[in-house]
């Protein structure tokens, strides 16, 4: 398949000529992503949802526009349809430095585990993260997270620490501080990936004072070049870690739901209180620590 590439006509519109054989795949993909599709005159389709619209003409010309155009092009159109990153690479400076990225999931969710994940990538394979659709897991739905995580695990060295509620509550009683518990999880994940890869260049999303994780690493006698920054998920390798962490959380929550026969929801909303009360009425207050993080104020509302 050959694609003829054009640069964006302006900062508000992306224009590309594509093979019309790709139309059927795009229609299926866009429907799955929640687009509304129509077929105006001279078009194969016109797709629209909040923030982005996409039109494929019978000539093969494809146009994309809207506030979320860049994200649509970067994370779907280029990796899944075009197989090129000409638009993305004009606007993004991809760091090819070999590194370990670390992120967590589940710390704000009452039910389910706390998960910390790490991914290692180098200059030989870091571009692959882009091609499989890696981005911050907060911008992805659960179905996409589960599929993308599978691709990451196949291609990249990784490690995941999943702390189920029973163990979480035990560790929280020991640390008496969520950030210290998180730092332990980060340090453990870093330690395992350093052993696997010998890479000592590490980037994490900063969740506390810089010394919190540094002290946890010192306790393990682990020396690394550690970068801590806010919104580190914008880094491709950290974004990959965020996907593995979220996948581990989702699977952990599903396992607990199946074990107890109650659909345990994500988050920490009023629905959590309602489900928590149902759980306690069925299994007793003493069992709540098997599924929930007991230091949350939510516990007082449930019991």
Describe the model.
With 303 residues, this protein is α+β, with helices and mostly antiparallel strands. 45% of the residues lie in helices and 19% in strands. It has 3 domains: 13-81, TATA-Binding Protein (2-Layer Sandwich), CATH 3.30.310.10; 99-255, 2-Layer Sandwich (Nucleotidyltransferase, domain 5), CATH 3.30.420.10; 258-302. It has helices at 23-32, 69-82, 86-91, 126-131, 142-155, 165-175, 178-197, 210-219, 236-260, 270-283, 298-302, and strands at 13-17, 36-38, 43-49, 52-57, 61-65, 99-105, 114-121, 157-163, 201-205, 225-229. A 5-stranded antiparallel sheet has the order 1-5-4-3-2, with helices on one face. A 5-stranded mixed sheet has the order 8-7-6-9-10, with helices on both faces. A hairpin with an 8-residue loop joins β6 and β7. α5 (142-155) crosses α9 (236-260) and α7 (178-197) packs across α8 (210-219).
- Which regions have little confidence, pLDDT < 50, spanning 5+ residues? 1-11, 85-93
Using only C-alpha atoms, the radius of gyration works out to 22 Å
Strand content: 15-25%
How large is the count of helical segments? Answer: 11
Sheet/helix structural class: alpha+beta
Supply the CATH architecture of the largest domain: 2-Layer Sandwich
Topology record:
Blueprint: E1 13-17, H1 23-32, E2 36-38, E3 43-49, E4 52-57, E5 61-65, H2 69-82, H3 86-91, E6 99-105, E7 114-121, H4 126-131, H5 142-155, E8 157-163, H6 165-175, H7 178-197, E9 201-205, H8 210-219, E10 225-229, H9 236-260, H10 270-283, H11 298-302
Helix pairs in contact: 5-9, 7-8
